[in-house]
Write the structure tokens for this entry.
Amino acid sequence: MARPACGMDFGTSNSTLAISTGNQPPRLVPLESGQPTIPTALFYSFDTDETRFGRDAMRTYVEGADGRLLRAIKSVLGTSLFNDTTRVKRRLLGFGDIVATFIAEVKARAEADLGHEIDRLVCGRPVRFVDDDDAADRVAQGQLEAALRQAGYHDIAFQFEPIAAALDYEQNVTREEIGIVADIGGGTSDFTVIRLSPERARSADRKADILSTGGVHVGGTDLDRLLSLRKVMPLLGYGTLTADGKRPVPSSPYVDLATWHRINRLYGAPVMAELTSTHKEAADPKRIEKLIAIVEGRLGHALAARVEDVKIALSDADVARFSFHADDVALDAPVSRDDLDAAIAGAARKIADAAHETLKRAGIGADAVDTLIVTGGTTRVPAVSEVLSELFPAARRVATDAFGSVGLGLAIEAGRRFGN
Ligand SMILES: Nc1ncnc2c1ncn2[C@@H]1O[C@H](COP(=O)(O)OP(=O)(O)OP(=O)(O)O)[C@@H](O)[C@H]1O
Ligand SMILES: [Mg+2]
């Protein structure tokens, strides 16, 4: 068999790997129980010393196994958190090793499916890993590249994720058009204005066809955080006062608990000491007790997952019930679509601004856009979807595979770049 050319979408929430061989259309390789996506999650078990991945990692953690869950590891690239270590029993793991471990697992699973080694890869990257800081953004790509090498890839190229989504869509284009790709995922919202046509689709170098790219570090995990801070963290005392009524209790533990990639920071002795003193001086110590129970029970990810469930339910329903029950804590609250909209209004505006900015950079008006190509799980959030439609009222809207189109496009790019 010819050496397959591969593309990997290393997503904040979900990852995929696709291959293109010969004249075959690209295809997504099954990565977990026959499914083409694998949640970007690892669980380091303290009981068995095993490392688990994807849905299996989340299930093991939720079932109460002792260990460390890591999610949204992509969000750490380029930030100061990257240099922190995570304690796994006696070992101190660096983030680079954690990212490499996940990538190596995806590689091994794909190789097992293909019966063939893979060492050449086009890896997706967001338009911006880090907002407003080009140096940190370069550092982030360097960290990802180092992890790819550590995982065993030799020939590595990067492509912007929204461009990859456009390449996948372009296979079905019959005439020249100007498209804007909106890829709203777990960690970032990425936009690309691109000229598409059947002829252009055959060319390897598309630089001249990319009219502009833009993006902002806002995605579904931010919506989870915002919804949590508005509707759930108050149940644990967020926003309440000290007993003397002079000041609110410290907010940082709540922000960490509501932010997927910061949850593990709470699980150290200094935070527990801080929470104990917060409890002593709180006007509403009962709520702080619930917060302490969640931190002590290492339940932060389970709580965040319930918030994410409510957010997802509100894509189809006007009301949903937030419900979290563990040994010592019971939390329940109705959440409406209006609550979600109010919580995420600022984030939706940032996404709209990024789209607007991208258009401006391309030097065209919204009315020049023929096609709005949407991908990424967060485009299912009604408020986000509406923002996009309002921005491009005249454009034909094309919904691609929300979870697969980036990976497929990266494999198309890999085929062109590396040949088959
Ligand atoms: N039906 C739904 N309604 C609302 N949000 C959803 C839905 N399905 C998935 N999501 C959200 O989509 C996000 C994941 O989308 P996706 O898999 O496209 O992201 P990603 O590629 O991992 O992230 P990124 O591209 O930003 O690195 C998560 O935040 C998830 O909660
Ligand atoms: Mg993505």
Residues 9, 11, 161, 183, 185, 376, 406 surround magnesium ion (ligand 2) (CB under 6 Å). Residues 337-362 form the longest helix (26 residues). The two ends are 10 Å apart (CA to CA).
